[in-house]
Amino acid sequence: MSRANVLSLYRRVLRIARSWKAQSSIPKDTDTEKKYITQEARTLFRQNQQITDPESIQRCMEECEARIEIGLHYRNPYPRPTYLPPMGLATQKGRKLRAQQRLRKQAKPVYLQSQDET
Predict the structure, then answer these.
(1) pLDDT for 80
(2) Per-residue confidence band for 90, with pLDDT thresholds at 50, 70 and 90
(3) Average pLDDT rounded to a whole number, residues 37-61
(4) Distance from chain centroid for Cα 63
(5) Beta-carbon neighbour count of residue 57 at 10 Å?
(6) Considering the chain, what percentage of its residues have pLDDT values greater than 70?
(7) From the DSSP assignment, how many helices (H) and strands (E) are in the chain?
(8) What ranges in 20-114 are assigned the alpha helix state H?
C-alpha cells in the first residue's frame, strides 16, 4: 500500500468525523462521538506510522475500513465488543493455555485487531 492510500483513508475518517451525527441526535453526544472518532484515528495512525511491512499495513487498512463500515452501518463509532469466555474455545486433549491464547487471537475480528486484549 502506498502512502497516498493511507493518507486518503485518514482523510476519509476525518471527513466522516466532521459530518458525524449521533444516533441520539443530542448535540453533546454528537460532539463526544466526533471527538472520539478523531482521537481514535489520530492515535491509531500515529501508533502505526512506523510500520513498513506491506502485509501489516494492509491489515491495518483492512481494520480501518471494517471499523468505518461498521460505524456507519450501526451509527456507532465505538468498536463492537466480542464475547468470548476466557476458556470458551474448544481445544484438543493435551493443549491448554497456549492453544487457548492462539485460538482467542484467531477468533478476534479484524475490526478489533488494534485493541488491547482485556
Answers:
(1) 75
(2) low
(3) 93
(4) 5
(5) 17
(6) 68
(7) 4, 0
(8) 27-47, 54-74, 97-107
